[in-house]
Structure formats: C-alpha cells, structure tokens
Amino acid sequence: MSDVHLDCKGLNCPMPIVRLSQAIAAAKSGARIVVEADDPAFQADLEAWVRRMGHVLEGIQGERVKRAVVIKR
C-alpha cells in the first residue's frame, strides 16, 4: 500500500487537520498518511486529533516545517 502525501504548507489552523481528516476518511485501514505543515499549532493540534480519533501517530519531525506520519486504524 502506498503512502498518501498531503502538502499543507501555508495553511493555517484548522486546515491541515481538515485535509488530514478528509484523507483519512477516504483511506483504508492501515493506510499511511504523510502530512507536511508549517502552521505553528500543527503538532499540538495533530497530537490531540490523533488521540481523539484513535489513529496512530507514527512520528513527527522537523522544525519550521513538520512532517508527520499518521496510520489509519
């Protein structure tokens, strides 16, 4: 299964999470969604969203631009 890549750079809260939600809804269980975002609130928003929705945050890295991998449950 190939990864889905979302480029959310330049988008402010809540749009990176909205785009991620749309991609997750269209994906099958086990899909990996790679998201890149430069919104300062992205990491905190993503961590809260993953906990609430029950998906897995495989990792997040980067300074100004965060790159996160989310696995759909």
SSE layout:
Elements (H helix, E strand, L loop, with lengths): L3 E4 L7 H12 L5 E6 L4 H12 L2 E6 L4 E6 L2
Parallel strand pairs: 1-2
Antiparallel strand pairs: 2-4, 3-4
What features would you describe in this structure?
This protein has 73 residues and is an alpha+beta fold. The protein has helices at residues 15-26, 42-53; strands at residues 4-7, 32-37, 56-61, 66-71. A 4-stranded mixed β-sheet has the order 1-2-4-3, covered by helices on one side. The longest helix has 12 residues, at 15-26. The radius of gyration is 11 Å and the shape is globular. The chain starts with a strand and ends with a strand. The mean pLDDT is 96.
Output the keywords.
single chain, 73 residues, alpha+beta, 2 helices, 33% helix
The largest sheet is: 4 strands, mixed
Unreliably modeled segments = none
Q: Could you give the order of strands across the largest sheet?
A: 1-2-4-3
* Topology as a string of helices (H) and strands (E): EHEHEE
What is this structure, in a nutshell?
It is built from two helices and four strands; from the N terminus they run E-H-E-H-E-E.
